[in-house]
Each structure stands twice: as C-alpha cells, then as structure tokens.
Write a structure and sequence with these properties.
Blueprint: E1 3-8, H1 15-27, E2 30-36, H2 47-58, E3 64-69, H3 73-79, E4 84-89, H4 92-108, E5 113-118, H5 128-136, H6 150-157
Parallel strand pairs: 1-2, 1-4, 2-3, 4-5
Bound molecules: adenosine-5'-diphosphate.
Residues 8-10, 14, 16-17, 20, 36, 87-88, 90, 94, 119, 123, 126-128 line the site of adenosine-5'-diphosphate.
Length: 160
C-alpha cells in the first residue's frame, strides 16, 4: 500500500490545499493530511478546529485520513510506514524553504522522498494568511476556501 503524508499548518485549509489533497489522493492508496503542531507559528485556529475543518472538507475522499503530529516529521512518517512527503509549490518564494526542508529530511532519513505538486494557476497566490486577513477585514473569501467550511471561517474571523 502506497502511503503519503501531506504535512502543514492548515490554519485554515484553503482551496489551494484542497487542490493538492485531491490530486495527491489519486496517486496514493492512502494520503494522511497531518496538522503540524508547529511551535514557531502562532496559529489562529486550534489543532482541534483545524482537524475538524479538514475532516469536513475531505469526508468524500476515501483515501484521505486526517491526523496531527508533534514530533520530528521524519519520525512521524516512519511511524506511519510511509516514505513520501507531499508538499505544494506556489511561487518561487516557496522554493528555497521547501528545498532546504526536503534536503534536510533526506539527510535525516535517506528512504524519504519529498514530492512537490505545483499549484494550480488559480491558487498560485492563495495562502491561509491571506484568507485570515481578508476575512477579518470583512472581505469575501468564498473563492478561497472550500464551501463546506465557509460559514465556520466567517463565524470565527469576521468581526461583527
Ligand atoms: P506550512 O506551515 O507547513 O508551510 P501551510 O498550511 O502553509 O503549512 O502549507 C502546507 C503545504 O501546502 C505547503 O507545502 C504549501 O506550500 C502548500 N500550499 C499552501 N497553499 C497552497 C496553494 N495555494 N497551492 C499549492 N500549495 C499550497
């Protein structure tokens, strides 16, 4: 069984993430979307909320499983008996960080492969931080986040 891990903050999930999830789930038997408990980023949504939102958006994709991890990514990947990490690439600005991370993970665990899926052109400039900024200023985010969670995000971020 080919298992891949798609790690990230998903704070919150956007249509850009969703696009990567749909495409990667066609390539693997199982895709574990893993919310990282990254201490260096201050999230807006709690881990539980992010998991809930991810579950709502992926309930119709049988290959997808939602999880969270608080260890070194490589350890998590080994525990899950996977050897592929999926990451999305948007603009050139993602490249340096992603490249560094992929090489570091390879150094830590030689059997790991990081697979990059290029963003769809529609989502090239889409990020969770942009969604949070627009929603908190009362802007329309319907073109940026999956429909099933639109209201959850608005409720949480739009100031009355
Ligand atoms: P992290 O903090 O790990 O970067 P993110 O939730 O910001 O977590 O992103 C997780 C992964 O999804 C990253 O590989 C990122 O490049 C990718 N990603 C985020 N937004 C998009 C998008 N609009 N199109 C394609 N990939 C994306």
């Amino acid at each position: 069984m080919k298992i891949a891990i798609y790690p990230g903050s998903f704070d919150p999930i956007t249509l850009g993430h969703m696009d990567i999830i749909k495409r990667a789930s066609k390539i693997f038997d199982k895709l574990i979307v893993a919310v990282s408990q990254n201490r260096s980023k201050a999230p807006i949504f709690t881990i539980e909320e992010r998991i809930e939102l991810l579950k709502k958006c992926t309930k119709d994709i049988p290959q997808v499983e939602i999880d969270t991890f608080d260890t070194l990514l490589i350890e998590y990947v080994k525990n899950k008996e996977a050897n592929v990490i999926i990451r999305g690439l948007r603009a050139l600005s993602d490249f340096e960080y992603e490249f560094q991370m992929a090489l570091t993970n390879k150094k830590l665990y030689n059997d790991i492969e990081t697979m990059f899926l290029t963003t769809s052109s529609d989502y090239m400039f889409l990020s969770s931080s942009m969604v949070k900024e627009i929603a908190s200023l009362g802007g329309d985010i319907s073109g940026f986040v999956p429909e099933p969670i639109l209201d959850d995000i608005k409720k949480r971020l739009v100031k009355e």
